[in-house]
Amino acid sequence: MDANNDSSAPWTSADITTILPTVTPTIFPRIGYSIISFLMFVTTLLTVFNNVLVIVVMVRNSLLQPMNVLILSLAVSDLMIGLCGSLVVTITNYRGYFFIGRAACVFQGFAVNYFGLVSLCTLTLLAYERYHVVCKPRAGLKLSMRRSMMGLLFVWVFCLFWAITPLFGWSGYGPEGVQTSCSLAWEERSWSNYSYLLLYTLLCFLVPVAIIIYCYFKVLTSMNKLNRSVELQGGRSSLQENEHAVTMVLCMIVAFFVCWLPYTVLSVVVVADPELYIHPLIATMPMYFAKTSPVYNPIIYFLSNKQFRDATLEVLSCGKYIPHGPASANISMQPLNNRESRLTLTRTIHSKILPL
């Protein structure tokens, strides 16, 4: 059905309340909506499958250790992005417009913003805890379930503040781009919206990026120092494991930027040049990039760990898969001031780039 000829076409600017910013109806080829709908359908399937698999494996195999609780939180928030975001966008693009009403538009914008921020901040918390485990082993050994839960509580409450304030007039939620999805009111030209976008960009993107880059840089630096120390004591070099850790860190950072950088650039551009015209398709793309993060987060942060990968294959094969080779070891509880403990730590520390 063509959106342009449908009598129940999306609401006009006169129909939109103050919580939904004024938008200009757009014209987009029907084939374009169909392509976006198909891509989002694939994204939804992969998002739901990957994250449900992570949750099932962790709960079924009792892998809920303090660090792994963060991975579980990431999987839950990513799953909600798929259900509240990608699934809805698949349906609305199939119809060619956001046909399910203003309340649903506000809810979708809120849900995607909220769970997207939770996912982003959980990745930041993961980077910080890995930094403590690898760079400050004695402090890392103090990581407890209580500390993990307190960190997650802060993340979820912090993100709730930034997601709920647009509902009370500081910025807002409304249709974006090609009018088949809803998000923050990027097109609204007001100082209230500009102030929100500036602080949102600073505290919800730039600060997390700085923390992630700093933490993983220090992790890699510590690993290299430990390798050199072990080699000087006659131990085996862990060059292959080190290269794998570097690759994983680069994947984490690149994936983070691919997902969230377009979102941030759009907000900065809108504030820097309020009169700039942004093509509807370009205005829509940042949210679609953000919706892809739940697809590869489980792969990078979960399935790339041998222990979790073996547990996943066992679940998928209904218990027929038999793991080969030793499982990932935990960090040694012995003091780090002797040669034996250093040799043990260097063989296991690379797995700390991945979940514990």
Automatic annotation (TrEMBL):
**Which residue ranges does the record assign to the G-protein coupled receptors family 1 profile domain?**
50-301
What Pfam families does the record tag this protein with?
A: 7tm_1
Question: Its domain of life?
Answer: Eukaryota
Q: Which GO terms describe its cellular component?
A: membrane
Which keywords does the record carry? Chromophore, Disulfide bond, G-protein coupled receptor, Membrane, Photoreceptor protein, Receptor, Retinal protein, Sensory transduction, Transducer, Transmembrane, Transmembrane helix
**Is the Phosphoprotein keyword given for this protein?**
no
**Where is the major localization of this protein?**
membrane
Which parts pass through the membrane?
A: 31-57, 69-91, 97-128, 149-173, 193-217, 245-263
Q: Topology versus the membrane, per the UniProt entry? A: Multi-pass membrane protein
Q: Where in the cell is it found?
A: Membrane
UniProt keyword Calcium present: no
What GO biological process terms does the UniProt entry carry, in alphabetical order? phototransduction; visual perception
**GO MF annotations for this entry?**
G protein-coupled receptor activity; photoreceptor activity
Q: Which family does it belong to?
A: Belongs to the G-protein coupled receptor 1 family. Opsin subfamily.
Please give the name of this protein. Answer: G-protein coupled receptors family 1 profile domain-containing protein
Record lineage = Eukaryota, Metazoa, Chordata, Craniata, Vertebrata
